[in-house]
Design brief:
With 283 residues, the chain is α/β, with parallel strands linked by helices. A 9-stranded mixed beta sheet has the order 2-1-3-4-7-8-9-10-11, sandwiched between helices. Helix 1 packs parallel to helix 7, helix 2 packs parallel to helix 3 and helix 7 runs antiparallel to helix 8.
Length: 283
């Protein structure tokens, strides 16, 4: 499998491509990373250095890849945080060109906008861009529950409303919706869930909640689920593997006492998921 991954990059820590690339490589995926920023560290520290890469330069890199004649071999285009409308245009253009070369290719979009605790943390134009132009072009999307509500102008909370919101998102264009953090009011204390919805059904998995903020964990989740689903076409199996790997990554990080994901230390959990959590069909 080959994945063209258009995301940010940091030298210190693991977010964007700096989170997604190694786990994908560890499960045997060839990754073509294209960077949208090249920062010293993620912006959560409040201070960082390095350049935003202009949309024109990002487009040039993608064009250079195309000139090598490999677009017909690309199975997936993957994108995450989109810092500007210009980058969105570049990503959509790349998706169209890859699909022209390989009609079987899919586009997986992590529609990064914010979360329930922080609200939206992107420029005001980005959610509109995602809802009106990017998500309709995607085959797979991986929003959290907050982002799902924003995309569909709904308020998902319990299981039924979250399923309805996922159906509304699928009506926009994507075939597969992975809701990466479902927080139902009636769930057991100190748990969190992940929900996958396709045209064939819906599946949920519950895990203990690890009490830490883990920048980059969503990028790992989107990457692993996309690769597993693209390989098998089985949403339940992809969900089981992804949740297992990401939970063990988070537990490894929590146990280390470090702020940044222990991405390398947890590598065996990507290659050999323990499948320790039960996936339940809910529709």
């Amino acid at each position: 499998m080959k994945i063209l991954s258009i995301q940010s990059a940091v030298a210190y820590g693991h977010v964007g491509n700096s989170a997604a690339v190694f786990p994908l490589q560890r499960i045997g995926v060839e990754v073509l990373p294209v960077y949208t920023v090249n920062f010293s560290n993620h912006t959560g520290y409040g201070a960082w250095r390095g350049p935003l890469i202009s949309p024109a330069d990002v487009r040039d890199v993608i064009t250079g890849i195309e000139e090598r004649g490999v677009f017909g071999e690309i199975d997936v285009v993957l994108s995450g945080y989109q810092g500007s409308e210009g980058i969105g245009d570049v990503i959509l253009d790349a998706v169209a060109r890859v699909k022209a070369a390989n009609p079987a290719a899919v586009y997986s979009c992590d529609p990064v906008m914010g979360n329930a605790k922080s609200g939206c943390f992107v420029a005001p134009a980005i959610p509109i861009l995602l809802r009106e132009r990017v998500v309709p072009a995607a085959d797979i999307i991986t929003p959290n529950q907050f982002e799902l509500g924003f995309l569909t102008e709904t308020e998902p909370s319990d299981l039924d409303s979250t399923l309805a919101s996922a159906d509304a998102a699928r009506a926009l264009g994507p075939d597969v919706v992975l809701v990466t953090s479902v927080e139902r009011p009636d769930r057991p204390a100190d748990t969190i869930e992940m929900l996958a919805v396709t045209g064939d059904g819906a599946w949920i998995v519950q895990t203990p909640h690890i009490p830490m903020k883990a920048n980059g964990s969503g990028d790992v989740t989107a990457a692993l689920f996309t690769a597993h689903y693209r390989a098998s076409g089985d949403a339940a199996a992809a969900l089981a593997k992804t949740v297992s790997s990401v939970w063990d990554l988070l537990q490894t990080t929590y146990d280390s006492g470090q702020r940044e994901l222990q991405l390398v230390e947890a590598q065996e959990f990507y290659a050999h998921p323990r499948l320790q959590f039960e996936v339940t069909r809910v529709r």
